[in-house]
Amino acid sequence: MIEKVNGVGLYYHKLGKGTPLLLLHGHHLDGEMFDKLVAPLSLYYTVYVLDMRGHGLSEGDVAEHYQTEVEDVSAFIKQVGIQGCYCYGFDAGGLVAMMLASQQTDIFKKIIVAGVFVNGAGIRPYHYLTEGCLRFLRLDRDSRVELTESFMSEDNLKKITIPVYCVVGEKDWVKVEHVRWYSQIIPQGQLILMPRQTHNSYAVKSLKMLDLIENSFK
Fold first, then answer.
1. N or C: which end of the chain has fewer CB within 10 A?
2. Is residue 165 part of a domain?
3. What is the CATH number of the domain that holds 155?
4. How many domains does one find in the chain?
5. Which residues in the chain show pLDDT less than 70?
6. The whole model's pTM is what?
7. What is the pLDDT of residues 156-189, one digit of tens each?
8. DSSP-assigned states of every residue in 32-54
């Protein structure tokens, strides 16, 4: 299905019945990253899988700023009538969810964010020197946005008043101690460590998040 949002047609698919649950993919990905999760989650929730602008089957160019994606997600939620939904966001999708939750306290009921950093200190140096810089030099817009705009102040983190489950892999290029730090600033934040997992291994085309989602969103 296509929903016209802020002048761009955003593709989404919807499956199941129950409380709405929005899934937000990371940069360089699209909604297909959740393929293994959608069917089992649809037994308990109405699952909405959204492709961000410029990703997957959505129209337009990749957003130049996170705030554009925040505004797209906000408008999408209101237009399809799922305000107060649950949300699971991975990587950039998780940061977008956190930014939106800090700006509109009633937009989500609870959120799970995975593999998210909120400032440059949260990334292991090798990621800057390898994948991040290579993509940046190739004028990859997703990477430029991540490397220049992935920032939330402590004041904005404190504005997130809903429960936030902050997930990170033990072997992630996002530092575990960084996620622990910001999870303690969010009033109802909670750190969840995925043992032996890398950045993508537990989240992309994986069922490893299924139990956590089902147990957290009640």
1. C
2. yes
3. 3.40.50.1820
4. 1
5. 126-139
6. 0.95
7. 999 999 999 999 999 999 999 999 999 999 999 9
8. GGGHHHHHHHTTTEEEEEEPPTT
The parent domain of residue 157 ranges over 2-212
Burial class (CB in 10 A: 0-12, 13-18, 19+), 32: middle
Break the chain down into helix, strand, coil percent, rounded to 5: 40, 25, 40
* Angular region, 90: left φ>0, alpha ψ -120 to 50, beta rest: beta
Task: Name beta bridge partners: 2.
Answer: 11
* Cβ-defined contacts of 193-198 (< 8 Å, 24+): 193/167, 193/168, 193/169, 194/167, 194/168, 194/169, 194/170, 195/170, 196/169, 196/170, 196/171, 197/169, 197/170, 197/171, 197/172, 198/169, 198/171, 198/172, 198/173
Whether 54 maps to a domain, the answer reads: yes
* Structure-block tokens of residue 36: 């293994």
